[in-house]
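#data-curation
PF: Archiving a pair of folding outputs for the training set. Convention for this channel: one message per protein, sequence first, structure tokens after, nothing in between. First:
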Amino acid sequence: MSDGVPDPKPLPRKTGRYMLFDHIGQGGMAEIYLARATTDVGATRSCVVKEILPLYAGRADFADMLIKEAKLAARLNHANVVQVFDLEREGGNLYIAMDYVEGFDLAALLKKCSKQKVKLPAELAFHVVSEVLHGLDYAHRAKGEDGKPLGLVHRDVSPSNVLVSFEGEVKLCDFGIAHANALAVSSGEEPSEAIKGKAGYMSPEQANGEPLDARTDVFAAGIILWELLAGRKLYRSDAGPLIEQARAAEIPELPSRGFAHEDDLRAIVKKALAKNRDDRYASAAEMQRELDAYVRKASLGANPIKLGDWLREHFGEDLLEQRSARERAAKALENAPVIHPKAQRTPPPPVVTYKEEAPQSVSLAAMDVSPPSVAPSTKPETADASKVPVWVWMLLAAVVAAVTFLVSRR
């Protein structure tokens, strides 16, 4: 899912037990890397590491909130939720490790569709939203070891957090991060543009800073459905601050697209986007049931196989290029020798390999090795006899003796 964002730090480098080797994006509060991790049995796996920006990682309140929420998110294990399996602090770094989904996030996919003038079929759009609702329902109902509900609310259901794989999987990511995200926005510090943009998918109660429940995620899923069907953003950037539009929650009529039983579809969207949460679907499961019933009625059904086939057909070249790049990078890491500082007697070249303790830059594409620069000497070099091995003197003596014997025979 690389978007060509320049890496802020040299790669490859180690963070905890993860070797970061490809910078694949930047979120509102984290740098995002493709990494390789070594398991307890010595196997390696690809994963995503989100390294929290120093601005937030250094704040105790933010770090505590993030750790608490991520621990809850790590309990989630569902086909429509990206698995979080590690959260650690190393020195001043705070990072989260999660499963890698090979494909696109929905925002990137829609940009590719627009750029290449490829339309996302309606049946696939319905399928994506239905899968998101399935994942949300599971998370909302999740319980802890004591049998009590975890009370998880995603708070940031947006296209950038919906991942679509080339196998046709749809997964929701960043459970446990959005709550900390909200803390960053309310801290008085200037939030990044990426965080500001999240307001475009907020429920009115979230935009007003009210206590939240599962229905705020239902509203966000309703926005995604509205945008996929309308082919544009719900809130316009030229209509004032997004946060103010979210508070007002003035939802335009869904444009007609000629779908069968379109009034039924409009009713679903309208209920999901009701300004008063009491008028909304009470759960993600309730909205999913009605959406799936409409899809069957309108004969617009789809499945993971159909979604995966469509993605490979239109964006298969991207898949092959990404796989090749990752394979080259991973191979470069596996072949690069590790130099331990204590074993070094001379300074290493500036770009050759990496140390386990302090990673150095390495060319991932061609493993080009820059030779160390040597300052020209101003004195002629002379041999140091004291450093010549003993066996060399013995060999030389034997040669001299042989030559003397041959000369004497003449």
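PF: Second:
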Amino acid sequence: MFNRLLGFRSIQRKIEEKIIQLSFIPGKYFEALYVECSTKIHCHTLDILEVEEKNVRSELLALMKEGQVDTKIEIQKFQLFERINGVSTKSKEIRILMNEYVEKMAEADYGRLVKLLKKSSEAGKLMHNSVKSLYDNYDEAIQTVEKLIKCCEEIINDLFEFRFCNEEGQCEYSFEDPEVLIGASIRSSLQDMINVGEKIINMIKIFSYNHHQLKAKGETDKVQK
């Protein structure tokens, strides 16, 4: 029985390591995408990262099928995996759109979108650090998630001001505009990063009932209401 439990725990640790590894790929992908779009030269790093993401995802799903120990834990880890996977999927869509419309956008607009890709790579790294901290230090995880959400919201605000409204706040765009299509994809990817952060906080609440910082925050929220 002990050996069996030890084996299950070993699988769980491998699952956690794969989730952390998977969460690191979007940040690297956005950074490589920034390089490709800023130079307009095909970046082979992106192709390598796409293969890596596919392999890690397959290995992770295989481990999850093998390691059924606690249904609640398994569900939480799978939901975290799904949200991270959503970020990766959206980032690949952005690459396709950027390559497709590179010649159809004004140089200034294209340049502004490229800069937002660089900022998105920083958000991706914060997402990775949030996932990593989930398995190391809850306090650090909460602080990093807060930074992640703030970073994503700032970029989303930049996207809104960039194209979706004029200075008077009036909407003046077509859903067929390349800037709108690409901006919407970047915004969707950032929202998925925020969803990852929210999932991490939810997991901490579920698995750490005595976490003082969350408990204090909950009591403060009640007082404010």
